[in-house]
Amino acid sequence: MAQQQPRCTRKAVPPAARVAIIGGGISGLAAAKQLAAHDPVLFEATPSVGGVWKHCVYRSTRLQTPRPDYEFSDYSWRNRDDPSFPTHAEIVDYLEGYADRFDLWRYIMLGAKVVGVKFLGGAAAGFTELWSGTGEPLQGKPMWEVGVATGDSDAVQWYKFEFVVMCTGKYGDVPRMPVFPPGKGPEVFKGKVMHSLDYCKLSEQETVELMRGKKVVVVGYKKSAIDLALECAQANQGEGGEACTMLVRTLHWVVPSYSIWGLPFFLFYSTRLAQFLYERPNQGLFRSLLCRLMSPLRSGVSKFIESYLAWKLPLAKYGLRPEHPFVEDYASCQMAILPDGFFDMADRDLIRFRRASGWCFSEKGVVLDDGTQVEADLVFLATGFEGKDKLRAVLPEPFRGLVVDKSGIMPLYRGTIHPLIPNMAFVGYVESVSNLHTSELRCRWLAGLLGGRFELPGVEEMVRHVDGEAEAMRRTTRFYRRHCISTYSIHDSDAMCADLGARVHRKPNWLAELLAPYNNQDYKED
Fold this sequence. Notes:
Blueprint: E1 19-22, H1 26-34, E2 41-44, H2 52-55, H3 88-101, E3 108-110, E4 112-119, E5 144-150, E6 156-161, E7 163-166, E8 192-195, H4 196-199, H5 204-211, E9 216-219, H6 223-235, E10 244-248, E11 254-255, E12 259-260, E13 263-264, H7 266-269, H8 272-275, H9 285-293, H10 295-312, H11 326-331, E14 336-337, H12 342-347, E15 351-355, E16 359-361, E17 365-368, E18 373-375, E19 378-381, H13 387-394, E20 424-426, H14 435-450, H15 459-476, H16 489-500, H17 510-515
Parallel strand pairs: 1-2, 1-7, 2-3, 7-20, 8-19, 9-10, 9-19, 10-15, 11-14
Antiparallel strand pairs: 4-5, 5-6, 12-13, 16-17, 17-18
Helix pairs in contact: 1-14, 14-16
């Protein structure tokens, strides 16, 4: 392994700085690379880059996709043929290597926490016919003032920029906490209550000591809850161990691997032919009629996958088979890859499952809505995060109230531009099978916008577009508020390539165009 060169980060904000990037996770690094021509200033609150992979993971957390499906188009994994899913430490190492390769450290200010932004463009700038008044992202004058606290100091320095890119992410920092009636919350519980965010901050030894020999309840049934329950079971193996109980409100489909009845998973959702079956935002009448006619095919694909999962996993045994179709979880990015050994631990009675649509605390544990009491010494809340609250915390009014629209989704044109928030972009708030690819392509699109390669439509047209996207997701899945593009990701990429004047069809021949999966390597810059 080559000796690491010293990393020289940015120590001060240049007086002529025009572009600010807030957040040093995957999206922030991609933005810094794509916007390098503007000499951006990247503010990262912590002492390191990596975002959620550095600061909000368990010791056992791994990526849910193979390495080749989670890499930048111009920076491959050194060991991309390794079939194992990368650990969180490997992902951080990969991201730091990306920053090394493209000398991104010169743009990054570590330990620089953004505490607020002020709008300098006037009261009407966000509510004009053209976005930002003129439709231009860079107007030659400051539009935002960014307040930054560095180190342990409470002093806030304010810096002016023409354009701001928000990359603070959807996960980490702000835990989503359940609300209880008076006298039924954690204050009555005699044990310990901890959100998964706090658990992430513990060392491996501390987590084992915390859980060993304890009656543990994990609230949730998504990826973080599943990983946490498995770690709890592993800590309680052997004499004196106690079972971990998962409290499940909403069931979701889980997948043991990317193979379905011996067929690669990409055949079902990641090729152009496969995605032809699914609705796209703002499609015309003819295609809408086609989608209706193809409904039996979509249902058949979903049932084919469900039949395999029901055969492969003991879902019926533990009452964990969802009633909704698999495609609804895939279309909302709710599908989770099971960690190795999860159901083995359930078979050994080290992981148990309780279904409950509601619950509250008692002195000795938790009480389910049917009156069942589950004793506990420790309750983990794997209840997710309020990523949009991070944005609300720094944005001023009236923009703070515009972050989420009436459908509960961030209304972002091309997943990047809010029609009513001028001279600002948001990257990392749209989900797909590979969030890295989604962010990288959006940053390239954003670089094209700032570079004048295309112009944005008017505000009304952008609003209609994002409304159409929300409606398409609403018709595809009941979990549409996550703003996931998995079933039309190729179409989404096509639109950005078309804006940039780049090739839309990226494969070498028509057969590959129809049947081969699309990934980041297909989107290397022309």
